[in-house]
Every structure is written in C-alpha cells, then in structure tokens.
Design brief:
transferase; about 15% strand; about 350 residues; three-stranded antiparallel beta sheet; eight-stranded mixed beta sheet; alpha/beta; 11 strands
C-alpha cells in the first residue's frame, strides 16, 4: 500500500529554511523593534561606528549591543564593515525617523504589543470568525485608539508612511482631471489627497475622517501649501458622507470592515454622488488563486484584518458584490505599478 506522504518529494534544505525563517519571524520583528527603541540607525547615521560607541550613545551594555548589531547585519539592516564596526544599509536607513521616506512609524506600529497580542489568538479567530483584538482588549481596535491618544498618533503616522508609495503613483496612474472636487473618505492626515491636489492644480479637496483621524491633517496641508484648496470635515462614515464632491476616494478603508459595514459606507458614498460622479477604492485586489510570486504580504494583511479589526482583503468579484449591494457598478480595476499590491477600483452609480 502506498501512502500519500510516501510519494511526496523529500524536503530540501531550502524547505527546512522556510520553516526556520517563519519560526524565527517574530524574533526578527522584535530585533527591529529593539533597534528602533534604542535609535541604533539614527545614532550610526551615514558613518561607520564601533559597537562600543553605539552602546555608549544608546545607554546600553557594550557586549549585548554588539550582538544586536550583528543580528541586524544578519537581517540586512546593517553591514559589518570590519570586526565590530557597523554601517547602515539602504534598507536599514528606512528606520531613521528623520529621513524622507522613513518607515520608522510603520515599523513601530506593526511591532507594537497592541497589534501583536491579538495574533497570539489567530487560531481562535479562524475557529470562530470573531475578532481576537476585541476579546483580548475588551473593546474594538479603533475605540482602543480613541482611549490612547499616543497610540492613535503612532497609528496615524504609520498609515501616513504606508501611503507614501501609493501617493507617489496614484495621481499618474489614473485620471483625476475630469473631476472638480475630491473627497478622501477616511483620509487620515491627508497624505494621499495632498499628492493628488499637487498633481492636479485645478482640483479642490476634502479630507473626511473622525477627529482622531484628522489630528495631523492640518500640518500635512500646511506643509504642502494646500490649506486654501482643501478643507477638513469631521464625521463618521457609518452615519453619512457629505455631498459636494464628484469623486469619493477611499484608500485602505474598506479592508478594515465586514461586508455589511462596507456596504453601509459605500451606500453613503452612493447617496452623495452627483450624476457622473465616481467612487474610487484604492486597496489590494486579491487574485482568484494565490500566486506565490506576487502574493507579498497581502495574505498576512488579510489575517491581520481578521484578528485585529474584523475586516478582510477582497478579490475583484468580492468588490463587485459589495458595490452592487450599495447601488454601484465597478467600471474599471487599474493596477498601480510601483505601489503593488494596490489597485484603483472605480465604481459608478448602477443603471
């Protein structure tokens, strides 16, 4: 008798490496978090430094600091130029909060205990379909942010940094020129809308979000010289979306919510749309079948939505279905090269 496992190819060292890398994944993340908290990358800067000097400036013990720096070099964040002497790599430089294009806030947020603790209960969420965060913290993620303003500010900064690539690509990938006023629903600190308004000087805009979501938006608009072309409106998109725009844009909003909640948000956008108006959804669009070559971290993001906020990433068919239920028809799905895995999903009022 032949058992299925008898005919499977034997595991190679590379296969063993895959499992080992996954098993050590959370340790790699905590190595990065420790480096951020000790400001290692900022201390080294553009020069080479010996481990003992980094330790002295960070207020750390020399021998353990040397071990941390070696681990960072093993992860590609630093390079050991000579024994005990380290320099920052281009990837590591992204952890310097003072550099343009920094991902330090993003890395801080996604190694934050508030994000990680619910992941320890992923199996429970898979069994039940319930959001583990709510069980662990006794409230939902966004209410938790309201109760912790410092964490909310970190989250806003992380979302701003996570939007940089898309903001650089979106204005050139899809046409905004046929619209007059864009409303960024759940637009946070205004990073994405600012990029669009800079590219299209005839457009005006509105960032619509909660009070917590908009906390850093005035500074973003001031920095971009856009205060006179963009207004900030506080509200709750589960209750209503203001009218007065002919394009309603949402980036990384719908994936936070269940299908029923998404239909509510889209229905409010639909109610505000003038004739000829459009809704533009900027999110990953999952293929019908997983392609390991292009999957990236999208499916981990999908599980993050499950454990932390109760949302999900969606396929084109799933976007079409929630739009249909909200009285909208998807008219185009445009990939955003350079901001993979994001797409621009455009929808019009259903005939």
């Amino acid at each position: 008798m032949t058992h299925d496992h008898d005919v499977q190819a034997a595991a190679t060292p590379a296969d063993v490496g895959v499992i080992a890398q996954l098993a050590f994944g959370s340790m790699a993340a905590q190595t990065m978090r420790a480096a951020l908290r000790l400001r290692v990358v900022e201390l080294i800067g553009d020069k080479e430094m010996q481990a003992a000097d980094v330790a002295a400036q960070a207020g750390a013990a020399p021998q353990p600091m040397g071990r941390l720096l070696r681990a960072m070099a093993g992860l590609g964040l630093l390079q050991e130029r000579a024994a005990g002497t380290f320099a920052v790599t281009p990837a590591g430089a992204l952890l310097d909060s003072g550099r343009p294009g920094s991902l330090a806030s993003f890395a801080h947020m996604f190694t934050e205990p508030a994000i990680i603790r619910a992941w320890e209960h992923l199996d429970d969420s898979v069994r039940s379909g319930d959001t583990a965060f709510d069980q662990v913290f006794g409230t939902d993620f966004f209410d938790h942010l309201k109760q912790h303003p410092d964490l909310s500010a970190k989250f806003n900064a992380a979302m701003s940094q996570a939007t940089q690539e898309t903001a650089a690509v979106l204005p050139g990938a899809v046409d905004f020129g046929r619209f007059t006023r864009v409303m960024d629903v759940g637009g946070g600190d205004g990073t994405l809308l600012s990029a669009v308004l800079r590219e299209y000087p005839d457009l005006t805009g509105v960032v619509y979000d909660t009070e917590e979501g908009l906390a850093q938006a005035p500074e973003t608009l001031r920095r971009g010289g856009l205060t006179d072309r963009c207004s900030l409106v506080t509200g709750d998109f589960f209750r209503s979306v203001p009218d007065g725009a002919d394009l309603y844009m949402m980036k990384s909003i719908l994936h936070d919510w269940s299908d029923e909640q998404v239909v509510t948000i889209l229905s409010h956008c639909r109610a505000a749309l003038p004739p000829g108006g459009r809704v533009r959804i900027v999110e990953p669009v999952l293929p019908e079948v997983v392609d390991p070559e292009t999957a990236g971290l999208t499916y981990l993001s999908d599980l993050n939505m499950l454990v932390n906020v109760g949302g999900r990433e969606r396929t084109r068919a799933e976007f079409e279905e929630v739009c249909r239920r909200a009285g909208l028809t998807v008219t185009s799905v445009t990939p955003l090269p350079g901001a993979e895995p994001f797409f621009a999903v455009e929808a019009a009022i259903a005939e």
